[in-house]
């Protein structure tokens, strides 16, 4: 107590110290004192109430204990009286043993008398029961059977009670009632037959199905009663428990399994669409049967059977077993797709288990998958392997067919915009589209996987396509007369590349969830651009093969005296480009620009080959004016062909060279060459030397001065984006001689 008091005082001191930390709080001392007094009074009142409640409880408990003690004494006295009476009655009970035996014997005799009529009429009842079973009067037959079994079971039970070890009497009763077990088995067969045809029976005669269920329910009650009696007496009649209810469910399960297994009407050999037909028949059967169960059969079974859910699970399990069997077979690619589409999509859709009439009775999301995930994965892997093999073969055949078209004597077809094309892109992407549509029915992830596989195969195919285009060009060069429509089909090949690009983008937009470009996309884009650009190059090569003899006439004596080489070049280019207009953008624009560049480069090459050396100012003036005129011709032609912004700059190179030739005052030659170099900084020293050599009036000292001065003031052109002279090689003397001889030989052959 002293310690508690000290703790209370210490706590009070701390509280007072907390209240009086500032001087202005001294004015509130009286207020604090009244508040603490109120708290003290409240605590004392609660304490008194609690103590009073405890005291009342103790008082009540003592009173109840006193009452219990009195009751125990009364019970003890009563038990003593009972014990005394029991000791006095032992002898009396032993004297009644004979009476007890007589009662048992009387009971047995009474049962025998009661069943005597039935015992003598057993053969007659057996015959009636057999007849009722044959007439399908199942309820009446079962009532008769119950009478026979009841008589047999009662007799056996009494015999068991009287002498359980007397097997001979038991055997005698069994022999007398031996037909009863046969009737029971016969009736059971009829019941199972009705249950096996339950889907038909419930539509035609539902009362028959109800009778079967009632009979089974009666037998279940008898089974339970006999099992309970066995627990008490150790006796159970032969054939019990029958467990017809369990057998009923087994029969129904077998019926459902047979129903599902019997849906296959045709085989693969008879019909390629056998699996589609099988799955459709299965879908229809399952849906129709479950609707019948929901609307009709449920009414024929007791509610506690949970009939619809039971049948729902039975059909699900049967279908699952069937599709597992199908999955284990050697299925083809299209059959794998059909099976997986049906399993993963159709099965739980509104067309089958998710039908509106069934959804109210069950939750399809609680169903186990028809096929384990590993089986699905195995099927998908098998499909991908087969699909890869098939699509490689399809692409090969498509390319072979397209190659045959390249040899035709007729032009390829044109699209609605007039661009040449072949059927190859349509065939290829029709294949891809069909397979992607199929893959999309299975699974979103699988669709992405098939799309990636298609693009991978596409990249491999395009490499082969490129090789075939090169071979097509090489074959044509061996005999330029064949194929007759080489140019048109090469244009179609170029256009196909653009069509491939558009089709690939369309497939990705439609079937890919990701918009990010992949390595495969970049590879395909790169290959398509290379095929198209090489095709454009092949066509330009074709043009310049026709222009070769005319290009060799440029900057020659014949050209100076009056040649129509440039006129022929322009007419030939324009004629070719009438066909090239059927090339799709952007390749047509690139090709026109490249054609102009090559024409200008070949023209400048003719200058640099020094095929002519001007002998006097008149020749230089005439040659320069002709070059300017021809530059204007090229400029007019390629503007007409929409060659692009570089037209003036490229043709200006010819004009700038002509200005160097046209200059009459040799002292100003350095300024004119400097102007040329400033416009075209990629020009090299050997180019300038060749120009001065063609001009013919520049002395050795002047050439060295011009070259030296330009070299000292040379400006770096590493950052120059446009160039023309870097593609122009200046031949050596030997090369020039060889070129001249070749040109002369070519001219003679042409004449």
TrEMBL record:
Give the keywords, sorted.
Answer: Acetylation, Cell projection, Cytoplasm, Exocytosis, Golgi apparatus, Protein transport, Transport
Gene3D superfamilies attached here? Answer: 1.10.357.50, Exocyst complex component Sec6, C-terminal domain (1.10.357.70)
What the entry lists under Pfam families is as follows: Sec6 (PF06046)
The record's Gene Ontology biological-process terms are: exocyst localization; exocytosis; protein transport
Location(s), subcellular: Cell projection, Growth cone; Cytoplasm, Perinuclear region; Golgi apparatus; Midbody
Listed under GO cellular component are: exocyst; Golgi apparatus; growth cone; membrane; midbody; perinuclear region of cytoplasm
Which family does the entry's similarity section mention?
Belongs to the SEC6 family.
Kindly provide the name given to this protein in its UniProt entry: Exocyst complex component 3
List the source organism.
Maylandia zebra
Taxonomically, what lineage is the organism? Eukaryota, Metazoa, Chordata, Craniata, Vertebrata
């Amino acid at each position: 107590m002293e310690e508690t008091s000290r703790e209370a005082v210490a706590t009070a001191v701390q509280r007072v110290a907390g209240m009086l930390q500032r001087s202005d709080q001294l004015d509130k001392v009286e207020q604090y004192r009244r508040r603490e007094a109120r708290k003290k009074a409240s605590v004392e009142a609660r304490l008194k109430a609690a103590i009073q409640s405890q005291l009342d409880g103790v008082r009540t408990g003592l009173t109840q204990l006193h009452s219990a003690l009195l009751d125990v004494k009364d019970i003890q006295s009563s038990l003593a009286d009972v014990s005394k009476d029991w000791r006095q009655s032992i002898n009396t009970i032993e004297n009644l043993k004979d009476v007890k035996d007589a009662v048992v014997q009387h009971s047995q005799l009474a049962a025998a008398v009661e069943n005597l009529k039935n015992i003598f009429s057993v053969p007659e009842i057996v015959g009636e029961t057999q007849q009722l079973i044959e007439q399908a009067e199942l309820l009446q037959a079962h009532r008769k059977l119950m009478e026979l079994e009841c008589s047999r079971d009662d007799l056996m039970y009494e015999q068991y009670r009287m002498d359980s070890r007397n097997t001979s009497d038991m055997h005698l009763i069994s022999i007398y009632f031996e037909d009863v077990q046969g009737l029971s088995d016969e009736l059971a067969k009829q019941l199972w037959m009705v249950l096996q045809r339950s889907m038909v029976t419930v539509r035609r005669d539902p009362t028959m199905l109800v009778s079967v269920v009632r009979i089974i329910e009666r037998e279940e009650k008898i089974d339970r009663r006999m099992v309970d009696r066995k627990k008490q007496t150790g006796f159970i009649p032969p054939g019990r428990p029958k467990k017809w209810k369990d057998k009923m469910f087994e029969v129904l399960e077998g019926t459902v399994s047979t129903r599902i297994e019997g849906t296959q009407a045709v085989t693969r050999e008879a019909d390629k669409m056998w699996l589609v037909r099988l799955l459709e028949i299965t879908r229809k059967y399952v849906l129709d049967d479950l609707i019948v169960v929901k609307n009709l059969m449920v009414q024929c079974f007791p509610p506690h059977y949970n009939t619809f859910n039971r049948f729902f699970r039975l059909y699900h399990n049967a279908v699952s077993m069937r599709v597992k069997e199908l999955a284990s077979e050697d299925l083809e690619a299209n059959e794998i797709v059909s099976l997986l589409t049906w399993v993963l999509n159709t099965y739980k859709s509104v067309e089958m288990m998710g039908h509106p009439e069934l959804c109210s009775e069950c939750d399809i999301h609680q169903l186990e998958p028809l096929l384990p995930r590993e089986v699905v994965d195995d099927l998908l892997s098998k499909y991908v392997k087969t699909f890869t093999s098939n699509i490689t073969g399809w692409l090969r055949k498509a390319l072979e067919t397209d190659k045959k078209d390249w040899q035709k004597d007729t032009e390829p077809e044109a699209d609605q915009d007039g661009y040449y094309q072949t059927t190859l892109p349509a065939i290829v992407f029709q294949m891809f589209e069909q397979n992607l549509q199929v893959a999309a029915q299975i699974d979103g992830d699988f669709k992405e996987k098939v799309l990636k596989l298609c693009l991978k195969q596409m990249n491999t195919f395009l490499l082969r396509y490129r090789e075939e285009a090169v071979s097509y060009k090489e074959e044509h060069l061996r005999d330029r007369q064949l194929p007759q429509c080489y140019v048109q089909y090469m244009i179609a090949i170029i256009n196909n590349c653009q069509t491939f690009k558009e089709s690939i983008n369309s497939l990705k937009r439609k079937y890919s969830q990701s918009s990010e470009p992949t390595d495969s996309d970049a590879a395909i884009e790169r290959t398509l651009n290379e095929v198209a650009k090489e095709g454009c190059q092949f066509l330009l090569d074709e043009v310049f093969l026709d222009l070769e003899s005319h290009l060799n006439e440029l900057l020659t004596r014949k050209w100076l005296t009056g040649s129509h080489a440039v006129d022929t070049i322009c007419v030939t280019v324009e004629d070719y480009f009438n066909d090239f207009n059927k090339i799709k953008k952007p390749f047509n624009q690139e090709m026109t620009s490249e054609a102009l560049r090559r024409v200008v480069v070949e023209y400048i090459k003719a200058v640099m080959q020094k095929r002519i050396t001007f002998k006097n100012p008149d020749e230089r003036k005439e040659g320069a004016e002709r070059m300017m005129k021809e530059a204007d011709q090229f400029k007019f032609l390629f503007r007409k062909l929409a060659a692009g912004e570089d037209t003036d700059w490229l043709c200006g190179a010819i004009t700038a060279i002509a200005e160097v030739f046209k200059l009459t005052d040799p002292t100003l030659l350095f300024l004119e060459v400097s102007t040329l170099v400033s416009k075209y900084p990629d020009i090299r020293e050997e180019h300038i030397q060749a120009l001065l050599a063609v001009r013919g009036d520049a002395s050795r000292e002047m050439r060295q001065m011009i070259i030296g001065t330009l070299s000292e003031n040379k400006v770096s052109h590493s950052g120059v984006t446009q160039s023309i002279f870097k593609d122009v090689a200046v031949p050596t003397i030997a090369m020039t001689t060889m070129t001249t001889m070749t040109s002369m030989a070519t001219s003679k052959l042409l004449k």
